[in-house]
Amino acid sequence: MASSPFLHPVRAIHPVHAAVLGGVLPLFLGTLLADYAYWSSHEIQWSNFAAWLLIGAMVMTTLALLCGVVGLARHRHGLAYVVVLAVTWVLGFFNSLHHARDAWAVMPAGLVMSLVGTLLALVATWIGLSTLRAGGVR
């Protein structure tokens, strides 16, 4: 009996989707690091940097979420990926609203939301990019 290495076709994400998803984690991580720098130094410009990085993270997360929904409709992604990305987007949205406040009112909730958002972005990136395998090996 002949053995087949592929029981089902491997469905990798689109390269544009991978590039957009690859930008989500670094921007959330930059937000976390800027919030930590503001928490430790009380230099207000770090709070501004965090807010700007968070806006970039939200743009990338929105694009990745749109790609994920299209991939879900085309049966390329699992529901878990889209749900984790949607939760990341919702938390990032509330974090953006929180960072819009006065710089002195951002801490410590802004740091905690940035930490949770970074962890969720890590999980979403892990799930989203886990389909990229060399040679179709699972």
- Give the tally of β-strands: 0
Number of domains: 1
Helix count, DSSP H or I runs of 4 or more residues: 4
Low-confidence stretches: none
Helix content bin? over 70%
- How much of the residues is beta strand, in percent? under 5%
Apparent shape: elongated
- H/E element string? HHHH
Q: What integer value in Å does the Rg equal?
A: 18 Å
Whole-number mean pLDDT: 88
In oligomeric terms, what are we looking at? single chain
Termini separation comes to 22 Å
Biggest sheet details: none
Main structural class: mainly alpha
Keywords: Membrane, Transmembrane, Transmembrane helix
Organism: Stenotrophomonas lacuserhaii
Pfam families: DUF2231 (PF09990)
Protein name: DUF2231 domain-containing protein
Overview of this structure, please?
With about 140 residues, the protein is mostly helical. It has one domain (about 15-130). The chain has 4 helices and no strands. The protein has helices at about 15-40, 45-75, 80-100, 110-130. α3 (about 80-100) packs antiparallel against α4. The radius of gyration is 18 Å and the shape is elongated. The two termini are about 20 Å apart. The mean pLDDT is about 90.
